[in-house]
Amino acid sequence: MDVYLPIANLSVNGLIIVALGALTGVLSGMFGVGGGFLTTPLMIFYGIPPTVAAASAASQVTGASVSGVFAHTRRGGVDYQMGAVMVAGGIMGTGLGSLLFNLLEQLGQIDTVINILYVVLLGSIGGLMAKESIQSIRAERTGIPIAARKRRHHPMVASLPMRWRFYRSGLYISPLAPLLLGIGTGILTMLMGIGGGFVLVPAMLYILGMSANVVVGTSLFQILFVTMATTMMHALTTHAVDIVLASLLLLGSVSGAQVGAQFAQKASPVKLRLILAVIVLLVAGRMALGLGYRPDEIYTVAPL
Fold first, then answer.
1. DSSP conformation letters of 24-57
2. Which residue ranges traverse the bilayer (predicted)?
3. Residue spans per domain, the chain
4. 176-192 and 197-206 helices, crossing angle to 10°
């Protein structure tokens, strides 16, 4: 079933795009991540231009985040005060990211930068996840528990001025810390088309020191609004959002998330984390190979 993508300016098999969305939806349901950090690389592997893939994936993440926010709201798992500060930072970050996106596009380096960012982020986070998962599996087998980490914000966060009380998160810190974190996530969302959850959740736990029972819900709350702003920013400035592509992805991811949730209930969380780490490292390795691989046909522009 061939479908023409007007912004990407190419024809694709619509069933394959739906299947890519379903695959990321399954991963989202199994591992509790937005899936945007895998959707964009998979589309790039399929032949979608990186700029269109990043811009369209952001709109898919918006749709996938809505149900998650409602679910966490019902159980009181969202710190709206913290989320509002991070949303404000995220919207500022999308503006900065838009300027950076346009600059890199004018320089002809945007595709390369997107690929490098994915290799660095996926490689580092996948490595950390794999290390933590292997340590947990060893602890289960030996019966020696891993020492619990004390919940405490980073010393740099403690040094920032103008402290506020974030009652739901159990914190008394400066709002500048979540604001800066939101700005960083907004820039990454604009450049990479990710929701940012796989970066935001560890940062909220280990840098801000937030309570674990509100981290995921607050992260989804921030992701929802920031990806909305990112989609609008892309539509107005870069014109790279392909609504046909985004719709096909969303169709697959919504159904795939339900299947993934069923798998997640039956599998060990530690083993699931290790599987996700391996997937992330494989994607990072494939993207790194693409950056250094010599193509079969090399085009040159000769001076007249």
1. HHHHHHHH-S-SHHHHHHHHHHHT--HHHHHHHH
2. 12-38, 82-101, 113-130, 171-199, 205-228, 240-264, 270-289
3. 2-291
4. 160
Name the one residue in this structure whose structure tokens are 């992805």: 249
Regarding beta strands 2-5 and 10-13, do their DSSP bridges make them parallel or antiparallel, or are they unpaired? antiparallel
Q: Are 284 and 119 in contact (CB under 8 A)?
A: yes
Identify whether the C-beta of residue 168 lies closer than 8 Å to the C-beta of residue 214: yes
Q: What is the tens place of the pLDDT at every residue in 238-276?
A: 777 777 887 887 777 767 666 665 665 666 666 777 777
Q: What are the tokens at 204?
A: 């909220």
142-193 pLDDT, tens per residue?
877 666 555 566 677 777 788 888 877 777 888 888 888 888 888 887 777 6
117 touches 188 (CB < 8 A): yes
pTM of the model: 0.71
The residue type of 110 is I
